[in-house]
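chain below, 220 aa
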Amino acid sequence: MKIIYWSDFNCPYSYIGYTRLKNAINELKLDVELDMKAFELEQELDDEIIPMVNHYARKYGIPEFQAKDMLKEIDDIGKAEGLDFDYSNAKITPSKDAHRLLKFAKSKNNPDLIENITVKLFEAFLCENKPLNSQEVLVDIGTSVGLDESEITNMLNSNSYEIEVQIDEEDAKLNGVQAVPCYFVENSEEMLVIPGALSTEEFKNALKDLKSGKIESKTL
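prediction:
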């Protein structure tokens, strides 16, 4: 089974969905290949570091006290999944370089490395309040999973993998992906599209139905 999914490291529901999906896969003891595709939610951002409360208030046209309540709700959802969310105090920046770093990690063809760096990139922003456009942050993350510091630095100082990120985002449009997370689950000749961060049980039911050939009765 293979799951191609579009996510963004700036998106709390992308990490929540990833966690629930991994739990479902592990509980079902499935052999699954995961392939994350880039989807930048906030492409209009420049390199300014913006507190999440201000960003939410501006984005949704709401007062800051309401934005704080919304962010706290998301923190609580993450914590219920065992994630040490501090999204309320995050500072949002562009995520393109984080996606480029993941592409670079994929070039090493090491599934454990890819999984580790994916989690660390989510945690850096959503749990540790680190800016994802910081070269220092990205180099620290990369070296912590075993990537070479000079190779990471050279990659980040170039335009390497920018085209690959753009291709992912064009593919998202072609496949009708308008929000993340969104999962395309392939099993033999069958395909199931799962939009959004389902619960672990819902993911388990969807994966079991696909594996058993009963997806025709599945509504997501």
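The first strand starts at residue 2 and ends at 7. DSSP finds nine helices and six strands in the chain.
thats it, cya
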